[in-house]
């Protein structure tokens, strides 16, 4: 069955970068490889390496699935983490019950 020569490796990067994820698998016959993005569950590639233009939509976990007929499927994953400065996501005005407004 299929085996990893080198399992996929997670990366930490920034917006706008292009990252290559690799799924280095050995098998006989040659395994069929699929990459699936966890957030969308869609197949994003069917090759050992994928190039990802990093954005909020493309960040996250990618599963590499290697399949050889008659053998169990081999699955690995890599994450694309985005380094960015912190942002405040709450409203500027906060309300506290029975205490008024906190500014």
Automatic annotation (TrEMBL):
Name used for this protein in its record: Ig-like domain-containing protein
Which Gene3D superfamilies does this UniProt record tie to the protein? Answer: Immunoglobulins
For this protein, the record's SUPFAM superfamilies field holds: Immunoglobulin
Q: Which PROSITE patterns match?
A: IG_LIKE (PS50835)
* Native species: Bracon brevicornis
InterPro entries, sorted: Ig-like_dom (IPR007110), Ig-like_dom_sf (IPR036179), Ig-like_fold (IPR013783)
What stretches pass through the bilayer?
none
Question: Where does the Ig-like domain lie?
Answer: 2-66
């Amino acid at each position: 069955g299929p085996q990893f020569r080198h399992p996929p490796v997670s990366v930490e990067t920034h917006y706008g970068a292009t990252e290559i994820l690799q799924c280095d698998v050995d098998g006989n016959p040659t395994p069929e490889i699929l990459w699936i993005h966890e957030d969308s569950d869609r197949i994003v590639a069917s090759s050992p390496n994928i190039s990802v233009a990093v954005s909020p939509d493309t960040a996250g976990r990618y599963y590499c699935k290697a399949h050889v007929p008659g053998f169990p499927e081999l699955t690995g994953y890599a994450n694309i983490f985005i380094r960015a400065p912190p942002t405040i996501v709450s409203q500027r005005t906060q309300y506290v019950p029975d205490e008024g407004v906190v500014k």
